[in-house]
Amino acid sequence: xxxxxxxxxxxxxxxxxxxxxxxxxxxxxxxxxxxxxxxxxxxxxxxxxxxxxxxxxxxxxxxxxxxxxxxxxxxxxxxxxxxxxxxxxxxxxxxxxxxxxxxxxxxxxxxxxxxxxxxxxxxxxxxxxxxxxxxxxxxxxxxxxxxxxxxxxxxxxxxxxxxxxxxxxxxxxxxxxxxxxxxxxxxxxxxxxxxxxxxxxxxxxxxxxxxxxxxxxxxxxxxxxxxxxxxxxxxxxxxxxxxxxxxxxxxxxxxxxxxxxxxxxxxx
Length: 268
Hints:
The chain contains 12 helices and 9 strands. The protein is an alpha/beta fold. It has one domain (18-215, 236-262). Helix 6 (130-141) links the parallel strand 6 and strand 7 (146-151). The chain starts with a strand and ends in a 6-residue tail after the last helix. This is WecB/TagA/CpsF family glycosyltransferase. Pfam families: Glyco_tran_WecG.
C-alpha cells in the first residue's frame, strides 16, 4: 500500500526533510530507525523547536479508534512504533514491518544516553514516590544530565497551575510525562508548550520500570516479541482486558481496514 511522508525536525541544516510514515487507523506512525529519531530529537533541542514524541502500540490504536480527542492529540506528535502488534498491522496494511521497534521503555534511556550535551530532564507522572525513585535510578545511568521530579500524576485540576508554573521556572529541555494512555498525550497537547520545555515525551509505564516497581521481561522473551505476555502474567487483573480482549479486536479491525482499502473505500 502507498505510504505518506511527514515533515519533522532533522539534524541537518535547512528545511525539515520528509520521513516515511505508515498509517494505522489514521495514526501517522513514523517508519524510522532509532538513531534517526534520536538525531531529530537532538536537532529540536538545539533549535529550541517544540517536539512532541509518543509511542503507539496495539492498545493505543484501539483507544484512538474510539476517542476523538486522543486521535486529535496524537496528530501533533511524532509517533514511534511500539510492539509486535503495530508491526503485524504494518505488514498487513503496507506490505512490510516498521524499520525498528521503538518502545518507550527502551528508547527513552537510549535517547538520554545518546544526547551529546548535558540536558535538564523533568519528570511528571506515576504514583507518589515512583517518579522520585525512577529519577534516582535514571541519574545512575545518565549522570551527565540533570533529572528533576516535578510532580506525580495525581495533582488533578487544582494542582495543574502549580505544575505548569514549576515547569516554566525550571525551563527543562525534556519533559517526560507518565500518566498512561490517553491522559499523558492529552496533558501534553492541551497544556505544554515552549514555556514549559522543548521536547515532551509521553512515556507510559517507564517510571514504574525505572523505579523497579515492574520487572522487565528476560531478554529472550523480549527478543521473541512477547513482553506483552510477560506483563500480562505479572499484572493479570489490570492487563487482562487490554491484551486478551484488546489484541484480537486490534487484529480484526486492521483486517477490516485492509478489506476496505482493497475495496477502494478508504485508506488505512
